[in-house]
Specification:
Length: 289
């Protein structure tokens, strides 16, 4: 049938439903599984690129939506999934061993020949649970119906709960995820960008000593910090902040980032103000950007 993709908008508290389904936001490539093939948002068939993701013909009477991800120490790594963008058979065989992918499924659009996109998300998730349980149980019995496929975990949150979405932070920290998707459980599947799915990023903040500063060739202003032996440049855009550094009035910088790489590099690290000392405790907050 050629289903389209439903995409997220940035989170706005005014749009949060009274009751939400919350899922981890993975950093991979979105793909629809239909007629035994994987297709990305550009409508390109990427099945052959991920031979380790397999769903048997006896279990493919579904149309699934999910994220194809590669992981580093349990964290989905977008740079690793980019390395899988090859159609070279030799490279593909090597990458399936050194950089394996997993298809994390979070929605089902068709089941046993029936289009269920009009049904609310809570019902579609129940169908997904039924399909996945069948595949998983058959696998335990020795029938290899699916490999390299996992079902996305979900949590339910009430807007009236005092902890609310902040209560999900501990879970997100354990998953080392970059954020969450807040979904309206009463919404149908709409192949467009909608406010029924809202995304939030889990920003971590840590204090670093400013080693030195530099004015770049394009008149930018950066500071240098060191994390676990890795030296990194961080842009400082505010003129008042720049002047404070130039006058030697700011020794410690707060840097916000999404995750820490194996090398110590801070992914999407950016300046987030000054600290009085390096002893301030690291923190994690849910935010739009």
């Amino acid at each position: 049938m050629g289903y389209g993709f439903q995409l997220c908008e940035w989170f706005d508290p005014k749009l949060q439903p009274d009751h939400s389904i919350v899922e981890v936001k993975f950093d991979g490539t979105m793909a629809i599984f239909e007629d035994g093939r994987l297709r990305n948002r550009r409508k390109r068939d990427i099945t052959e690129r991920f031979p380790e993701v397999q769903i048997s013909e006896f279990a493919n009477d579904v149309v699934l939506v999910g994220e194809v991800c590669c992981f580093s120490n349990g964290v989905s790594d977008f740079r690793k999934i980019l390395r899988r963008n090859t159609d070279n058979p030799t490279k593909i065989r090597l990458l399936t061993k050194t950089n394996p992918a997993t298809y994390i499924v979070f929605d089902v659009l068709e089941y046993k020949g029936e289009d269920i996109t009009h049904k609310p998300l809570r019902e579609r998730r129940a169908v997904l649970d039924e399909w996945y349980s069948t595949v998983y149980l058959q696998g335990l019995n020795g029938s290899d119906l699916a490999r390299g496929v996992e079902r996305a975990n979900k949590w339910e949150v009430d807007k009236s709960d005092p902890c609310g979405l902040d209560g999900i932070l501990e879970i997100i920290t354990n998953y080392k995820a970059e954020g969450i998707i807040v979904k309206n459980p009463d919404s149908p599947y709409i192949p467009d960008r909608t406010t029924n799915w809202l995304k939030l990023k889990a920003w971590k903040t840590k204090v670093f000593e400013i080693l030195r500063h530099e004015i770049t060739d394009n008149r930018g202003f950066v500071i240098y910090i060191r994390n676990n032996g890795h030296e990194q440049r961080v842009a400082v855009n505010g003129q008042n902040d720049q002047q404070r550094i130039l006058r030697g009035m700011g020794r410690f910088a707060k840097v916000r980032y999404l995750r820490e790489e194996e090398s110590g590099a801070l992914y999407e690290g950016h300046f987030h103000g000054f600290a009085k000392s390096k002893d301030e405790h690291p923190s994690t907050t849910l935010d739009r950007r």
